[in-house]
Specification:
alpha/beta; 139 residues; 32% helix; 4 helices; Rossmann fold; 5-stranded parallel β-sheet
Length: 139
């Protein structure tokens, strides 16, 4: 079983989402599952269709906004044949519109045919690791 954990930070200097993604991956690995953690912006024209489960995380552009980082939609559309794959969506609790940000990424994932099993707004690395341990990934 292989999991692709892809995160889209608001900018290159943002460490919050990366830390949460690493903690989430650590929790998933404790289940005995192989996890590859990738910055979504480095995935231009790379395919992720060989993963059995895909986790996608985003961070809103600023505190008052629910907008996704630029080019997220284009990159997700270019990830390859992912239709029917099980998926998990998450965002960081860092603004007043976190639920709307999560809703936008979920809509985008469902548009590409991903089967969303679960979604969360994660506030800390400890929470992310706990969620990773409890995430039901096995078929």
């Amino acid at each position: 079983m292989r999991v692709g954990l892809i995160y889209f930070p608001k900018d290159n200097s943002s460490k919050t989402l990366k830390d949460i993604a690493v903690s989430l991956g650590s929790g998933i690995e404790k289940q005995g599952i192989q996890v590859d953690i990738m910055n979504g912006f480095s995935l231009a024209n790379k395919k992720v269709s060989f993963y059995d489960y895909i986790c996608l995380g985003v961070e809103s552009r600023d505190f008052f906004s629910s907008k996704l980082p630029e080019r997220v939609d284009v990159i997700i559309k270019s990830l390859g044949f992912v239709s029917g794959k099980r998926a998990y969506a998450f965002t960081v609790k860092n603004g007043i519109r976190s639920q709307k940000t999560l809703s936008l990424i979920m809509k985008l994932m469902e548009k590409e045919g991903l089967y969303l099993k679960k979604s969360d707004i994660i506030s800390s690395s400890a929470d992310a690791e706990y969620i990773g341990k409890k995430l039901h990934i096995h078929k």
